[in-house]
Every structure is written in structure tokens, then in C-alpha cells.
Amino acid sequence: MFTIISISVDGGTRSSVLFGGQPGKEAVGPTGALGPEGSVYILSIPGMGYMKLKDMGNSVSGPGDWSVQVSGSSTNWFYKGGGQATISINSSGQYTISGGTNSISGKFSLGIIGFGSKLEAEDSECLIAEGNRET
Fold it and tell me: Which domain of life is it from (predicted)?
């Protein structure tokens, strides 16, 4: 289980939306520790895009006991015990996650975020994360 202890964005304060959880138990704005293994979360920053975080548990070898797979990065973020993630995002959508046993970098995604097997523009279970940054 891990927590996101801070989210900072270059250029000032920005709002963020975190949603997700275990399959069938998803929530908007979950409180407390995130996880367990198999849980999926979306962190969206309006006007910038989103990142998807998937709790991989201890199924991936690396520098920590537990790992989180993050969209936009080819490397998992690892931690020991109760991980505390610090997320920093620059104005072009590049992010860094630190606070575990390693730090990773990647790029925010743009587009439609959806849940379920069928995704359509009018789907009530989708969120559009529009970005106004240059790609």
C-alpha cells in the first residue's frame, strides 16, 4: 500500500482528481493508502492530462518490496513498507515520482480515460483529460 503525499506542478497551484481502486470498489477521491495489488488509479490534472498507476504488489523484481506501474514510464516505481510518493510535474507534462527506493520519470498522457470494455465518447463512465500544452 502506498500514499501520494504531494503533487506539485510548475507554474503554480493546479487542481487534481484521483480516482480508482480495486476492481468493483473504485472511488473518486480515495482517502488513505492506495492499493492493494491489482488496484488501478488515475491521477488527472485538468489542462495537463493524466497518469495511470497500477499497484503491482511484489510481482515485479526491483529495488524495493512493492512496485507501481505508471503510464508514460518504462520503469516501475518501487518502495518498501508503506510507500510515500511525491509527484512533480513540469509545464510540458513531464513527471517525476520520488519517495520510494527509486525515482522514475515519464510523460503525462492526453486523451480519453475510460473504464470498462467498451468506450464511446458519450459513455457516462469516461473522463476527458484535455491538455493545452504543446506535444
Answer: Eukaryota
